[in-house]
Design brief:
Elements: E1 2-4, E2 8-12, E3 21-27, E4 31-40, E5 46-56, E6 63-69, E7 82-83, E8 87-88, E9 105-108, E10 113-122, E11 128-140, H1 156-162, H2 167-177, H3 240-253, H4 256-283
Antiparallel strand pairs: 1-4, 2-3, 3-11, 4-10, 5-9, 5-11, 6-7, 6-8, 6-10
Length: 284
């Protein structure tokens, strides 16, 4: 059953008493939901409802509660349901001996069927919230209080007959008739635009390509061999005697140091030539 919210009910394996268990979970949502089961009993006998596994991941935001309807009804809102204490906070096993966590509830059977309810109240979400439920049972217990007098709900049909349902359509019909009908006004003709003549495009003369003048090749000048000028010897008419006199005069004008340098160079050249000649003959 669901009071409000839209959680998911699915089988899981998180339990202390063997798989499967029931997982009730929601991501970001709040809810108040539960489940019930009907059990055959002995009329007038006392019974105790107990749950061994009610394990939420965030205990402070989950209220857990057991209820019994001694008449066997299936409406969790019925005044015949006897509810036990609601527990918020730590505790996965919910039937420890008092004063530890225990939410057992007792009642006496009115008929041959009793209904056991288990309700989960989750008024505050902290994201991914879930609770695992398992091992709900009903045990004989003669410490249960005396049987209660069943309360019958008022029939709904009598309440519906008292309401003046038939008068409403008539009033609505009169109200509709009193509204005047609007006379439709013919639509005003929308002026149509007269199309303007489209101007005719004037043909544009296509330019004729003017041929470019062909360039005239200029011949490359051919190199002409110019003969070297022939040296004309000076003093063509110089005699041998005159030449000897000039050479002697030049030698007389040369400084002694220069003559000494020339002599050394001459002897050095002769030495180099002699050494080279000796080395060549040795290689043979």
């Amino acid at each position: 059953f669901i009071y409000y919210g839209d959680p998911t009910f699915m089988q899981d394996k998180d339990t202390f008493w063997g798989v499967p268990s029931l997982r009730i979970w929601s991501v970001g949502g709040t809810f108040e939901v539960g489940l019930y089961t009907q059990v055959g009993v002995t009329p007038g006998a006392g019974y105790r409802a107990s749950i061994a596994w009610g394990a939420p991941n965030k205990p402070d935001t989950f209220g857990r509660q057991l209820g019994i309807d001694p008449t066997g009804g299936t409406d969790p809102r019925s005044p015949n349901v006897v509810w036990g204490p609601e527990h918020f906070g730590p505790g996965r096993i919910l039937n420890y001996p008092p004063p530890d966590v225990n939410i057992d509830v007792r009642a006496r059977a009115v008929g041959d069927v009793m209904t056991v309810f288990f309700k989960v109240n989750h008024p505050q979400s902290q994201g991914d919230d879930l609770i695992f439920v398992d091992a709900i049972a009903l045990y004989p217990d003669e410490s249960a209080p005396a049987a209660i007098q069943p309360v019958e709900a008022a029939p709904q049909e009598a309440a519906q007959e008292a309401a003046p349902v038939a008068a409403a359509p008539a009033e609505a019909e009169v109200a509709v008739a009193s509204i005047p009908t609007d006379t439709p006004i013919p639509p005003t003709a929308t002026p149509t635009e007269t199309p303007s003549p489209t101007p005719t495009a004037t043909a544009t003369a296509t330019p004729t390509a003017t041929p470019s003048p062909t360039p005239t090749l200029t011949p490359t000048p051919t190199a002409t061999w110019t003969p070297w000028p022939t040296a004309t010897p000076d003093n063509a008419g110089l005699s041998v005697e005159q030449a000897q006199l000039q050479l002697a005069s030049a030698a007389a004008n040369v400084e002694p140091a220069l003559l000494f340098l020339v002599g050394i160079i001459g002897f050095g050249g002769a030495g180099i030539f002699g050494s080279s000649y000796w080395w060549v003959r040795r290689r043979r």
